[in-house]
DNA sequence: AGGAAATTTCCATTTTTCGGAAGAGTCTTT
DNA sequence: AAAGACTCTTCCGAAAAATGGAAATTTCCT
C-alpha cells in the first residue's frame, strides 16, 4: 500500500564528489559520522604514525573544524593521544580492541593448551592462524625453546599477518573456502616470489589447493623464505567448517621436510583433531539419522 | 574581552569526572554519533564476544533502530562481523589498529634488535613495555630458548597487560612519572596480593618507588607470582623522559635474584642505554650551554 | 620579535540522526 | 505443522546534532 514511497530524494546525489574517503556507502541508513570518525583512525599507519588536524582533514577531504571535533572525541575516548607537538597518534587503548578480536572467536582459549602440549612434545614452534581475505592472521603461537629456531623467526606474534598463498596455513585455509569466496580471494591476490619455490601462477596455485584439500594437510617447502619448511593441519568447528589451521615450522638445518611430514605430521594432525573436537566437531556425524 | 570564555572550563575536567564510561560527555563540540558507535565496539569483551542488536541496545540504552544503523556501518567498515546466528562479533580488521598502535611510537622498531641481541647473549626472556594508566602494556618480547622458561610463561605477548604495581617494569615506569600523574595512578590502583612479596600498601609502594628512582632500576622478587624474579631498566627519549622499560625475567630455579641483578643487570642497563641513545637521549646534555 | 601556519572555538544553517512503528524473518512452543 | 513470541531490519516525519566558514588563539619558523 505505501507503494509510493515518496520521491524524497534523500541525499542520493551528494554532488560530484565521487570518492568519499574509503567506501562509498552513501546510503541514508549508514552513519556518516561514525564512518568519518573511523576513517580518521585509519589514517594512522606505520608509515605515518603521527598526524595533525590539517593532515587528516586534507587526506579525508573534510573541513578542519569537523575534523577537529572528531579528533577531540577520539582523544576523549582514548583512541587517540595528543603528543607534545600538538599532533596526534593512536592511543594505546585500541590494542585492547585488537586483543578482544583475536580472542573473540574463543579459538585461542580453546586451542592454547593443545598448542602448548604439542610444542612440549616436539620442541618445534607451533602456530594457529585464521584466514582474513587473502592473508592469514596469527591468533596464537607456542614458540620452541630450541636454539636455531631464531633463524626462522620472522618476528611473528598474535596479530601478525602473512600472505596466504605462500604459507602452509594459508594454502590449507584457502583450499577449504567455498568456491565463491575462493574466487574472490584469488582475484585480489598478487603472487610475488618470496622463496625458491613460491607458487607464482594462479593456475598452479589452484592445482596445489586441490591437492591440499585431497590430502587433508598442507606443506610449505621454501615458498615463503629460503630453508623454511612447515606443515599445517585443519581445525574444524561444529558446523564442519575449517575455521583455523595449526602449523609447525622448522629450519631445514634442523629437520628435513620428509622427516617433518612423516615423524611430526601425525602429531600435528592429532592435535588439530583434538582442537576440532573441543570446538564440537564430530568426525562421523549421524545427527540426521 | 573574551576573557570570560564562558563557564566551560576547557579541558580541566579531566580530573574529577573519573568516567562518563558509557554515558555521554555532553559537550556540544563532541560527536555523539562517533561516541555511540565506538561505545558499541567497547561492548564486545572476552566474556561477551558475541552480541545481538538487542543486547547492545539494552547495554547502551539506545533504541534498536539507532543501534542497528551503527552496527551495519561498523560491519560495512569491517570493524564487526555478522556470524551465522545473526549476531555480531568484532571483525579481524581491528587487530590492525592494535598493531598500528603498538608500533606507532616507533619504540618497537628501534628496540627490537637490541632486545634480540640481549636475549642471544643471556638466554633469558627479554621484554619491553610502556605504562598505560595503572597497567603496563607489553610492546615487544624476545623469548628465551631455555627449557624451564615455560614455568614463568604467563601467556604474555605484545598487547598483553599486567598491573604495574606488582611488576618490575611497572614500578620503574611509575617511579619516573610526574608527581601529578603518579597521584592519579595511585588513586585508581587496587593492590591485590599476587605473589609472596606483593606490595599491598600504598605507603610501602610509594617508598619502593622512591628507592627505584634512586637506584635507576627495579627488581621484582616474587611480587607477581611465586618463584618469579625480574629486573628492569629504563629507556629514555630525547626529552629525557622515561618512555619504556626493558626487563629480564627468570624462574628462581634457574638463577637467584642476586645473581640476576649482579651478573645480568649490567647487560640489561647497557641495552636500555643503547636503546635510549637510539631514541636520541644524551647522558650529558649540554644543549643549553 | 614578527609573521605565517596551524589549531581551536563560535555560530547560523541544514543535513544527518533519532526512535516509534510497521514489516520480515527466525526460533520456540503448543 | 501452525501459532506465538521474539529479534532483526526498514521506513519516515520530527528534531537534534553535525557542518564548515570565519574568527580567535596558540605555536612554529625565520
Which structural traits does this protein have?
six-stranded antiparallel β-sheet, 289 residues, homodimer, alpha+beta, disordered N terminus, 8 strands, two-stranded antiparallel sheet, DNA-binding
- Name the poorly predicted regions of chain A: 1-25
The share of residues in helices of chain A is 25-40%
Query: Strand-residue fraction of chain A?
Result: 15-25%
**Helix/strand structural class of chain A:** alpha+beta
How is the main sheet of chain A built? 6 strands, antiparallel
Q: Alpha-carbon distance between the termini of chain A?
A: 46 Å
Overall morphology of chain A: elongated
Radius of gyration of chain A: 23 Å
Return the average pLDDT of chain A rounded to an integer: 85
Tally of helical runs of chain A: 9
Structure description:
The structure is a homodimer of 289-residue chains. Chain A has nine helices and eight strands. Chain A is α+β, with helices and mostly antiparallel strands and 289 residues long. The first copy, chain A, has a six-stranded antiparallel beta sheet with strand order 5-4-3-8-7-6. The longest helix of chain A is centred in the last third of the chain and has 22 residues. The first copy, chain A, binds a DNA duplex (30 and 30 nucleotides) through α3.
Amino acid at each position: 500500500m505505501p507503494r509510493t514511497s515518496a520521491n524524497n530524494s534523500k541525499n542520493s546525489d551528494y554532488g560530484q564528489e565521487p570518492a568519499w574517503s574509503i567506501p562509498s556507502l552513501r546510503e541514508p541508513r549508514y552513519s556518516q559520522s561514525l564512518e568519518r570518525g573511523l576513517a580518521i583512525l585509519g589514517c594512522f599507519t606505520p608509515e605515518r604514525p603521527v598526524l595533525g588536524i590539517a593532515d587528516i582533514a586534507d587526506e579525508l577531504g573534510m573541513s578542519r573544524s569537523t575534523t577537529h571535533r572528531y579528533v577531540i572525541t577520539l582523544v576523549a575516548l582514548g583512541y587517540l593521544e595528543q603528543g607534545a607537538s600538538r599532533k596526534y597518534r593512536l592511543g594505546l587503548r585500541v590494542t585492547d580492541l585488537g586483543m578482544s578480536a583475536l580472542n573473540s572467536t574463543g579459538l585461542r582459549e580453546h586451542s592454547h593448551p593443545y598448542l602448548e602440549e604439542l610444542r612440549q612434545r616436539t620442541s618445534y614452534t607451533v602456530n594457529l592462524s585464521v584466514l582474513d581475505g587473502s592473508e592469514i592472521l596469527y591468533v596464537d603461537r607456542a614458540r620452541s625453546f630450541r636454539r636455531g629456531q631464531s633463524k626462522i623467526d620472522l618476528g611473528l606474534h598474535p596479530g601478525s599477518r602473512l600472505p596466504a598463498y605462500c604459507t602452509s596455513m594459508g594454502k590449507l585455509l584457502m583450499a577449504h573456502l567455498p568456491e565463491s569466496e575462493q574466487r574472490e580471494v584469488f582475484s585480489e591476490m598478487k603472487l610475488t616470489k618470496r622463496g625458491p619455490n613460491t607458487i607464482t601462477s594462479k593456475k598452479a596455485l589452484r592445482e596445489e589447493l586441490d591437492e591440499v584439500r585431497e590430502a587433508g594437510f598442507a606443506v610449505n617447502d621454501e615458498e615463503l623464505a629460503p630453508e623454511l619448511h612447515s606443515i599445517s593441519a585443519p581445525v574444524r568447528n561444529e558446523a564442519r567448517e575449517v575455521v583455523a589451521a595449526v602449523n609447525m615450522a622448522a629450519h631445514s638445518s634442523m629437520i628435513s621436510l620428509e622427516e617433518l611430514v612423516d615423524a611430526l605430521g601425525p602429531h600435528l594432525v592429532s592435535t588439530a583433531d583434538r582442537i576440532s573436537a573441543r570446538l564440537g566437531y564430530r568426525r562421523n556425524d549421524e545427527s540426521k539419522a
